[in-house]
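> call design_seq(struct)
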């Protein structure tokens, strides 16, 4: 029997695995995608807002060509960390549910070959992040194939009419890159302007494109319906219909609250924050821990790699003290 199973192999999950191993505890990490799967799905040309040292885990230095690391540099770094600590990571394996009790959990999972597996562990740590579950617009036509909730790179959208919904970092970066690559870009946002927390090297650029009329933007506006060749907007000036080939609905993501509740983890009805001990990150269900952005509920902007990476140490200390 393992001392712990870590569900999720993002930066915080890796940090948990490192801290457990440092204490001589046997752990395995299981992820339904690849190592740091969320980072892999970030835009290809993404540059982090933070400096390299704030992304470090396990005391392994991170280097970058410039002041701020890129997505590719981060992917290389976390692969190197996983190798350095010889972490046992089971990639492309979906954790379906966990039953049992503290000291005798059974983690039920399915491999990419369709094989059902059961892993026994004394403790379970959920560190699944939130990037896999996009927020939805909730409008007719959102299920059309042309509606996308993730942006990777601009080339496929050259010479196309593209609507970008949202006004935070992801939306602003996507709109700029799409416009630079020859797409006809329109933005729509329910708020009055580009979000104040957009990265300082992106914000003036997108605002200038909007001011010059190069990227039309509808603020204080919403998407009412998505059609195969058009989009209907509700604006302060009234209804607007625009020609459209693709829609990027970049309005954020959320943790899998249903998955947590299925495992007996109670959530605050307003904030969806799980009820847990913030000194140990153990939930009310003894032996079951949460790490990373899961502890923030709907306030996903409170937990980043920079602070979530420290959760592993507290969790590992708690598990070791009960060993």
């Amino acid at each position: 029997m393992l001392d712990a199973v870590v569900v999720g192999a993002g930066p915080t999950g890796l940090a948990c695995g490192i801290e457990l191993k440092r204490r001589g505890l046997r752990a395995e990490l299981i992820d339904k995608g690849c190592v740091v799967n969320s980072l892999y799905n970030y835009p290809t040309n993404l540059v982090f807002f933070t400096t390299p040292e704030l992304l470090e885990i396990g005391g392994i230095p991170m280097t970058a060509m410039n002041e701020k690391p890129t997505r590719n540099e981060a992917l290389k770094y976390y692969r190197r960390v996983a190798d350095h600590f010889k972490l046992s990571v089971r990639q492309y394996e979906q954790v379906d549910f966990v039953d049992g009790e503290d000291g005798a959990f059974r983690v039920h999972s399915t491999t990419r070959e369709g094989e059902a597996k059961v892993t026994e562990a004394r403790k379970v740590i959920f560190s699944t992040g939130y990037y896999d579950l996009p927020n939805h617009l909730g409008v007719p036509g959102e299920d059309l194939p042309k509606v996308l909730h993730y942006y990777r790179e601009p080339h496929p959208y050259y010479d196309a009419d593209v609507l970008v919904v949202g006004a935070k970092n992801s939306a602003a970066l996507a709109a700029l890159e799409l416009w630079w690559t020859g797409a006809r870009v329109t933005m729509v946002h329910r708020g009055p302007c580009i979000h104040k927390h957009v990265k300082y090297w992106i914000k003036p650029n997108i605002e200038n494109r909007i001011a010059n009329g190069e990227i039309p933007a509808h603020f204080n506006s919403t998407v009412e319906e998505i059609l195969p060749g058009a989009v209907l907007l509700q604006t302060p000036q009234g209804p607007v219909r625009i020609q459209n080939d693709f829609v990027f609905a970049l309005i954020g993501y959320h943790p899998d609250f249903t998955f947590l509740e299925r495992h007996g983890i109670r959530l605050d009805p307003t904030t969806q924050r799980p009820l847990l001990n913030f000194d140990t990150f153990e939930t009310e269900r003894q032996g079951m821990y949460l790490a990373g952005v899961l502890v923030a509920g709907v306030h996903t902007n409170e937990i980043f790699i920079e602070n979530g990476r420290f959760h592993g140490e507290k969790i590992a200390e708690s598990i070791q003290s009960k060993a």
